[in-house]
Specification:
The protein has a domain of 185 residues: MetI-like fold (Orthogonal Bundle). It is 77% helix and 0% strand. It is built from 13 helices and no strands. Helix 11 packs antiparallel against helix 13. The longest helix has 36 residues. The two termini are 12 Å apart. The mean pLDDT is 78.
């Protein structure tokens, strides 16, 4: 297992390098002069040149890239121009909110999505299958920001079941922490549930048509053992792949949800950085997001070997 982990990390290294280069090129690929945008349209040429010098934009591109990698090697992901703090510090303050939101949405998604997909596959071509897939299609298709705004109007303004916005730390009051996150987490999980249900149904349908399932039934095994144990376990590879995708979408999708519900998470931090033209902040956060996605893919690859011992990497 140690050799497998080392191998996958080595294979992920080129991806990390490419992500780092793309994050570095973020400022250079944007239209216009970043120094002018940061200094302001009314700034003097001397002020613009000072900003360009402070950011190192007056140096050759290759030299800038080298300095960028040297900073990354020392754990320096840049500093915010607006917040007057490092990117890691700004993310550290807001990361618990995003992780809480993503974790709660995944906790809602997994049991509902997997169960709905398995039920739809078992009762395929019946009204149950049609109903589940229709609901899943609606969940995948409805824009997250639109349904989130409607949920605030209905459940927060009209019914007053949940707060309209804000976040309470778990250490202050666990009950209020959960109450402040339930509605955003449910809205974030709508797409995830629909996606996971469709993927689970597809995987289960493929397995349920295999010869070993017919053999298990002919031997008199119960439906619970046949479907719940043999079929589901053989469908885990595709389901784990879908869960890995959902982990990434939960982190990325939090940008919209945090903005609608005014949650002080990393997603809202990115939006504020874009609106304030805080390019170093956006650049650093996107780089850390890229590292997180690579780590998720690495974890999914390792989970394959636990879900199916036949999976081996040379």
């Amino acid at each position: 297992m140690a050799r497998l982990i080392a191998l996958r990390i080595l294979q992920a290294a080129p991806v990390i390098v490419i992500v780092s280069i793309l994050a570095f090129l973020l400022i250079n690929l944007l239209p216009g002069d970043p120094a002018v945008v940061i200094a302001g349209d009314q700034a003097s040429p001397e002020a613009i040149e000072a900003v360009r010098h402070n950011l190192g934009l007056d140096r050759p591109l290759i030299e800038q890239l080298g300095i960028w990698f040297v900073h990354l090697a020392h754990g320096n992901f840049g500093a915010s121009l607006v917040l007057n703090q490092s990117v890691l510090s700004a993310m550290g303050e807001r990361l618990p909110v995003t992780l809480s939101l993503a974790g709660l949405s995944i906790a809602i998604t997994l049991p509902i999505g997997i169960f709905a997909g398995a039920i739809a596959a078992y009762y395929r071509q019946t009204w149950i299958d049609s109903f589940v897939m229709t609901v899943a299609l609606i969940g995948v298709s409805v824009p997250a920001f639109w349904i989130a705004i409607l949920s605030v109007i209905l459940f927060s303004v009209i019914l007053r079941w949940f707060p309209t916005s804000g976040y309470v730390e778990f250490s202050h009051d666990p009950g209020l922490w959960l109450r402040s996150l339930v509605l955003p987490a449910v809205m974030l999980s709508l797409f995830q549930i629909g996606f996971l249900a469709r993927m689970t149904r597809s995987a289960m349908l493929d397995v349920l048509s295999q010869d070993f399932i017919r053999t298990a039934r002919s031997k008199g095994l119960s439906e619970w053992t046949t479907v719940g144990k043999h079929a589901f376990r053989n469908a885990l590879i595709l389901i784990i792949t879908a869960i890995g995708i959902l982990l990434s979408t939960a982190i990325g999708g939090s940008v919209v949800i945090e903005q609608v519900f005014a949650l002080p998470g990393v997603g809202r931090l990115v939006v504020q950085g874009i609106l304030a033209r805080d390019y170093p902040l956006v650049q650093g956060v996107m780089l850390i997001y890229g590292f997180a996605f690579v780590a998720i893919n690495l974890a999914v690859d390792l989970l394959y070997t636990f879900a199916d011992p036949r999976v081996r990497y040379d």
